[in-house]
Design brief:
By secondary structure, the protein is mostly helical. It is 92% helix and 0% strand.
Length: 25
């Protein structure tokens, strides 16, 4: 369960970074 939670957090972080890059660039 904790591994899946960490994976979801990693994906959410990557999505947030992607959205930020898209907004800036």
């Amino acid at each position: 369960m904790s591994i899946n939670r960490d994976l979801n957090a990693s994906i959410n972080l990557r999505n947030a970074v992607g959205l930020t890059v898209n907004a800036c660039g």
